């Protein structure tokens, strides 16, 4: 825990951080969902199919994962609030986390930046940072839980996504809000989660302007989702009924990934 | 062996010698499904552990399942269903058929102490496979309870918002990760002893495969 956190602190051990990130990523040639041969017999028993054929195992696992999406959507209670914490619980420094080093993170000029809005909305005008930060602000101190297992507590402030979706006349019966980021990261969020009262368009961290490390100028903060469902450097949002996939979702992370 | 079926039984036979079924079919089937699901859960769990280790070590890639974090998670959350369905049915049948009451009860402190002292001197008899000694009873009941803790702590770290009461009962998100790890460790330790003893008493293994 401590060791990992030290690697994730901005400006420290960048090479190690990248090496670590690379280790967690799938092999370039082919995703390796299967480990050594010793376990394959038992796995055949488990799944009832020939798991030596990796493709069929992956198909089966993907199907179970879709089933798990549905189970998690059923478990999700839109009225359950994520636990909140006091200022003394805040993790300092809060880790930087991405699949690249901090110096490769997008550098965005807040003056030029605009949030594009598209899809099933009544008003698809773009929004400047100044316009967005004039909307009513809310704040939360919640736990960010990474898919890797570590977690950190931070304070985020910004505009409730629900309020913004209502403001632009979004079809709140649509299936997803799909985000695209300046680093080409993408992620779809199911509508019930997008409408959750703690789901936030975040412009401030710890009361200060959102630093580059945490997604300047806008991150989507969702305390009811794993960290990778909290996109940073967001440049566009689309309200849609289509599942458009996402950076990690396409590689095998469960798409709902609720907490 | 076919001969055991036709041989006349001794006056006061141990169950194993009568040719009676020691392990009914449902126990055998569920036992091996459980073994496969547990193996997948543990090996994929080690893969997940490696992404953010709790301690200063990682599990070798040769004994992890999934190839990378995402694959480990997919295996873990797939095997989970097999384990939960099998486990719930097993516990229900264990109570309904009276097997738990007959085989795992009662457990007395004096029985455990005396059987344990015999066990460490390697004097404990395994002749009657139909009757567990106190140490066996304690271990089997213990591992069932550890299984419960492992499921509870697993739910606590999988859904720390929806099941936040459970998570806080376990001391919070970070503490629940440790509880889950130690429950896994206890199950692995139990399995190691279990497998060694099964290897030392081949007829117990045979009974778990063919029933007799």
From TrEMBL, chain B:
Which GO terms fall under molecular function for this chain's record? electron transfer activity; heme binding; iron ion binding
Q: Name one Pfam family in it.
A: Ni_hydr_CYTB
Where is this protein found? Answer: Cell membrane
Q: Where is the Cytochrome b561 bacterial/Ni-hydrogenase domain?
A: 23-209
- Keywords annotated in UniProt: Cell membrane, Electron transport, Heme, Iron, Membrane, Metal-binding, Transmembrane, Transmembrane helix, Transport
Report the InterPro entries cross-referenced here. Cyt_b561_bac/Ni-Hgenase, Di-haem_cyt_TM, Hydrogenase_cytochrome, Ni-dep_Hydgase_cyt-B
The UniProt entry lists membrane topology as:
Multi-pass membrane protein
Q: What is its main location?
A: membrane
Q: Where are the transmembrane segments?
A: 32-52, 72-93, 138-158, 178-202
* A GO biological process held by the record: respiratory electron transport chain
Q: Name one GO cellular component term.
A: plasma membrane
Instruction: Report which residue ranges the record marks as coiled coil.
Output: none
Q: Tell me the protein family, please.
A: Belongs to the HupC/HyaC/HydC family.
Name of this protein? Cytochrome b561 bacterial/Ni-hydrogenase domain-containing protein
């Amino acid at each position: 825990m401590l060791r990992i956190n030290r690697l994730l602190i901005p400006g420290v051990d960048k090479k190690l951080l990248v090496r670590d990130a690379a280790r967690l990523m799938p092999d370039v040639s082919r995703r390796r969902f299967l480990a050594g041969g010793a376990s394959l017999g038992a796995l055949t028993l488990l799944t009832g199919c020939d798991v030596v054929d990796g493709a069929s195992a992956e198909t089966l696992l993907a199907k179970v994962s879709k089933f798990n999406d549905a189970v998690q959507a059923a478990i999700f209670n839109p009225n359950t609030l994520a636990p909140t914490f006091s200022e003394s619980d805040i993790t300092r420094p809060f880790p930087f986390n991405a699949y690249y080093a901090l110096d490769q993170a997008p550098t965005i000029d807040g003056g030029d930046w605009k949030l594009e809005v598209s899809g099933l909305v009544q008003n698809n005008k773009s929004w400047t940072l100044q316009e967005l930060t004039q909307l009513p602000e809310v704040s939360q101190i919640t736990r960010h839980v990474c898919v890797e297992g570590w977690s950190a507590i931070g304070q985020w402030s910004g505009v409730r996504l629900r309020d913004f979706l209502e403001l632009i006349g979004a079809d709140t019966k649509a299936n997803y809000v799909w985000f695209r980021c300046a680093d080409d990261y993408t992620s779809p969020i199911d509508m019930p989660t997008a409408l959750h009262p703690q789901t936030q368009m975040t412009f401030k961290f710890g009361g200060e302007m959102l630093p580059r490390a945490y997604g300047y100028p806008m991150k989507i903060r969702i305390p009811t989702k794993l960290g990778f469902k909290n996109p940073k450097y967001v440049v566009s949002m689309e309200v849609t009924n289509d599942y458009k996939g996402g950076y990690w979702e396409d590689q095998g992370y469960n798409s709902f990934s609720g907490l | 062996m076919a001969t055991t079926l036709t041989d006349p039984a001794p006056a006061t036979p141990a169950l194993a010698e009568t040719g009676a079924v020691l392990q009914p079919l449902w126990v055998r089937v569920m036992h091996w499904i459980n073994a496969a699901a547990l193996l997948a859960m543990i090996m994929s769990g080690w893969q997940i552990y490696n992404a953010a280790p709790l301690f200063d070590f990682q599990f070798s890639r040769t004994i992890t399942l999934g190839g990378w974090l995402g694959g480990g998670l997919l295996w873990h959350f797939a095997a989970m269903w097999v384990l939960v369905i099998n486990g719930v049915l097993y516990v229900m049948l264990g109570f309904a058929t009276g097997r738990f009451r007959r085989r795992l009860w009662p457990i007395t402190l004096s029985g455990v102490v005396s059987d344990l002292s015999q066990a460490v001197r390697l004097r404990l008899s395994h002749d009657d496979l139909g009757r567990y000694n106190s140490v066996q009873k304690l271990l089997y009941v213990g591992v069932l309870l550890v299984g419960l803790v492992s499921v509870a702590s697993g739910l606590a770290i999988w859904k720390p918002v929806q099941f936040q009461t459970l998570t806080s009962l376990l001391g919070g998100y970070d503490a629940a990760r440790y509880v889950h790890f130690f429950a896994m460790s206890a199950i692995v330790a139990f399995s190691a002893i279990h497998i060694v003893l099964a290897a030392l008493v081949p007829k117990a293994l045979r009974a778990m495969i063919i029933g007799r």
